[in-house]
């Protein structure tokens, strides 16, 4: 689960990590009401779940209240990497002497949380990792000990030289780690962490992701959830026992089993197509799930063809076929559908589908090629 920057800033504040004051606003009217009449330097920031807002024009400075209102008007409703900006954060801007990066992430290789830091702040860390990976300092943290003060100072010493700045940065790292552990994060980044001309170290941006599997015990975090359309669909799917992840392509996939779902997406890619989603209806023979899955796929405006790929084991193909027929009776659609059923009760399943008048193919690669062809019509 992701939260917005303004929410991350609140958590930072609660943990004693210095952040400039700010107000989140949903409309220009709200901006007019919420911010003081004082003319001072502010920064107006789009609140969307993607990085690189600055480059996309979603972060702008304003010298007066009138300017802040103008910038908010420009940014609200803007589209950043496919997401519509519904909220802006209007924060007190600070002067920057230098920008740094610090972050924590779950690392599978070291089986621990890894602290990352870099003097190349401000730019996206993925970019630094690509161009100059040696500029990222990494330190795995022993989960039984936590991040100890000396470790935090050791990292801080590689970014700052003045003792007072090292102390400020080290304290921020320790607090960030505490917040990370307390709230079951999977990622927490401050980028940029800045040094101001008056030698204060503070966080100007915050990105936090949380482990979905821990949300059952993180009620306060769950209460912060704000979802966009795609995320809402994913959550709806989870509630219905489906694993669904929205992607960027145009071929809807309905598959049983995560491995087969991955293979199906690979197959579509191999033949030059682009999957719209990952969708695993799971291992059971539940016709209701097929109906739910078809509802999700067919209501998606990007889907131009659907590829159904079922390998029956515990899942019985005739159950899937019945679910499919029920779904298509309920949802009338012009979207072409290609079906491949194989394994348990495939023969019975295929008969149901043939009687219904839908095309079937016998192999995965045929199904992928056909779906791509149909999506282009
Ligand atoms: P991102 O592009 O989505 O990561 O958004 P950020 O919040 O990191 O802002 C992008 C950039 O805008 C930062 O790296 C800074 O250079 C600049 N910026 C953000 N806040 C301030 C501020 O208060 N003062 C100044 N001078 N620049 C800022
Ligand atoms: Mn940033």
What's the structural blueprint in terms of helices and strands?
Blueprint (H helix, E strand, L loop, with lengths): L4 H10 L7 E4 L2 H7 L7 E5 L12 E4 L2 H11 L3 E2 L2 E2 L3 E5 L5 E10 L4 E7 L6 H7 L5 E5 L7 H11 L3 H20 L2 E11 L5 E3 L3 E4 L8 H4 L6 H11 L3 E4 L4 E5 L2 H13 L6 E4 L6 H12 L6 E8 L4 H14 L6 E7 L2 H11 L7 H12 L2
Parallel strand pairs: 14-16, 16-17
Antiparallel strand pairs: 1-6, 2-3, 2-6, 4-5, 7-8, 7-10, 8-9, 10-11, 10-12, 13-15
Helix pairs in contact: 5-6, 10-11, 11-12
Bound molecules: guanosine-5'-diphosphate and manganese (II) ion (MN).
Guanosine-5'-diphosphate binds next to strand 2 and strand 10.
Q: Work out the strand percent.
A: 15-25%
Q: Tell me about the biggest sheet?
A: 6 strands, antiparallel
For the record, the count of structural domains works out to 3
- What percent of the residues sit in helical stretches (DSSP H or I)? 25-40%
Radius of gyration: 25 Å
Shape: elongated
Unreliable parts: none
Q: Which ligands, by name, code or SMILES, are bound?
A: guanosine-5'-diphosphate, manganese (II) ion
SS-based class: alpha+beta
Number of helices: 13
Q: Which H/E pattern describes the elements?
A: HEHEEHEEEEEHEHHEEEHHEEHEHEHEHH
Query: How many strand elements?
Result: 17
The end-to-end span amounts to: 37 Å
Fourth-level CATH superfamily of the largest domain: Succinyl-CoA synthetase domains
CATH architecture of the largest domain: 3-Layer(aba) Sandwich
Query: CATH fold name of the largest domain, please?
Result: Rossmann fold
- Overall average residue pLDDT: 94
Under CATH at level 1, the class of the largest domain stands as: Alpha Beta
